[in-house]
Amino acid sequence: MNWVLSSLLFLPPLMGIFHLLTAGALKSPARQWGSYGSALKRIALFWSFISLISTIILWLSLDQEGGFTPLMDIDWIEGPEKIIPITMGGPLVFAVDGISIYFIILTGFIVPCSILISWHSVKYLTKGFLICMLILEFLLYAVFSVLDIFMFYILFEGVLIPMYLILGIWGSREEKMQAAYYFFFYTLIGSVLMLLCLFSLYNIHGTTDYLTLASCSHVPSQQQQKWIFLGIFLAMAVKIPIFPFHIWLPKAHVEAPVAGSVLLAGILLKLGGYGLVRLSWPILPLGAQNLAPAVIAMGIVGIVYGSFATCRQIDVKRLVAYSSVAHMGLVSITLVTHDIIGLTGSIFIMLAHGIVSSLLFILVTILYDRHHTRLIKYYRGLSITMPIWGTIMIVTSLANVAVPPSGNFIGEYLSILSSFNWNPIIGVFVCSGVILSAVYSFYFANRVTFGASGSLITSPRDVNRREFYITASMIFFAFLIGVYPIFILEVIQNSLFFIAL
């Protein structure tokens, strides 16, 4: 049991939650909200940065050969047979490998960015809001490192609670409760199917331990694997989301505060892709192979439909939200090609998209804070009044289109190559998604950035220093993983070979 590594991962968010809960002593009748709120923000930001540093230290201690680096194991429901006749696979094991570690680092990076971009939003950065964010960070660390599929389901569902509160309580408009209900019930209904499938796996194998299930993936028959994979895929398709299970996503993004949108786009949407990577080919290879044509067809429809739906949006937040549907359609295609290139490309797309999509939501929120409208038709010529914002917007749009040397380019190149290896016709449809993404990305960037200044632009204030540091750091990492991708690709491929291929 490596308690040192486990404390590095789990202790900072837990300490941040405890620190915020006991921060009431800082408040006195003579102090106004400003000083008390500033103290709360500094507490949450401090522990989120400590957590980010801890994830980097954990990455440095990773097993470079592709195996799992153990964190800890806990005897959670084991006991004498007369008292507890059924055990769910023995000790509860937490470990990280080359796949999960990068999602953990992405989580550690997105959370402090979410806090910083909301720094002056007094309505949002209350004690309850900050505690929800740190609880969400802790749950994400756990769901990316647990090696028991039943506990994975519990943590997968547990993520819903703090995000539901963030949407429903601190949402920005009148329809925030409707968006929260959409988010909660879509994910919950899909996850019920996954729970039934996990019970079926336990009934077949007698355990829910991930490594045990991956080592005997041939035991269920092809028919059993097909139905089990179908249930798990439907649950993950809602979370990714894939057409036609995407209805909740635009509503949630439009109504969420900026931190909620950044967390949704940056990391929560990646839970579905991560779950498919973990549960499809390692445990249910025959089921994934049998249903691969249907999944690919849904992915193609998602790419085309999501791209055309993005082109017709008039709300800047809905435009960015629908672009995520198109990109995640590409991820779903390459996840079922059973090709090491495709699996690597899908993971790389998720990591790069987590940074770029979060940055787009930050940029459109900056626009809304300045001008109090999200309608695209009111924006024009922002390169004149907001030159720094305009430059960042152009660079981010280029990264979203996957121009070299962005991280999106590496992921989409590998995904296109894998699609052509599977079927040239599939590859053509995937390439059409790349072209359509250029259409809506360049249209949006050109429409709001260039031309004569719009008559309704009332505030020419450009990005401030805090916003510039956040956006510049995200751009830096979005292009760093494209300029030097080998330090990610090699570790991911070693882990893929270790668990599945």
TrEMBL record:
It is found in: Membrane; Mitochondrion membrane. Coiled coil: none annotated. It is an enzyme of class 7 (translocase). The chain crosses the membrane at residues 6-23, 44-62, 99-117, 124-144, 150-170, 182-202, 227-249, 256-277, 283-307, 319-341, 347-369, 381-402, 422-446, 467-488. Its EC number is 7.1.1.2. Keywords: Electron transport, Membrane, Mitochondrion, NAD, Respiratory chain, Transmembrane, Transmembrane helix, Transport, Ubiquinone. InterPro entries: NADH_Q_OxRdtase_chainM/4 (IPR010227), NADH_UbQ_OxRdtase (IPR003918), ND/Mrp_TM (IPR001750). It is a multi-pass membrane protein. One of its GO terms (biological process) is electron transport coupled proton transport. Residues 148-433 form the NADH:quinone oxidoreductase/Mrp antiporter transmembrane domain. It comes from the Eukaryota. It catalyses: a ubiquinone + NADH + 5 H(+)(in) = a ubiquinol + NAD(+) + 4 H(+)(out). GO terms for cellular component: mitochondrial membrane; respiratory chain complex I. One of its GO terms (molecular function) is NADH dehydrogenase (ubiquinone) activity. Belongs to the complex I subunit 4 family. Core subunit of the mitochondrial membrane respiratory chain NADH dehydrogenase (Complex I) which catalyzes electron transfer from NADH through the respiratory chain, using ubiquinone as an electron acceptor. Essential for the catalytic activity and assembly of complex I. This is NADH-ubiquinone oxidoreductase chain 4. The gene is nad4.
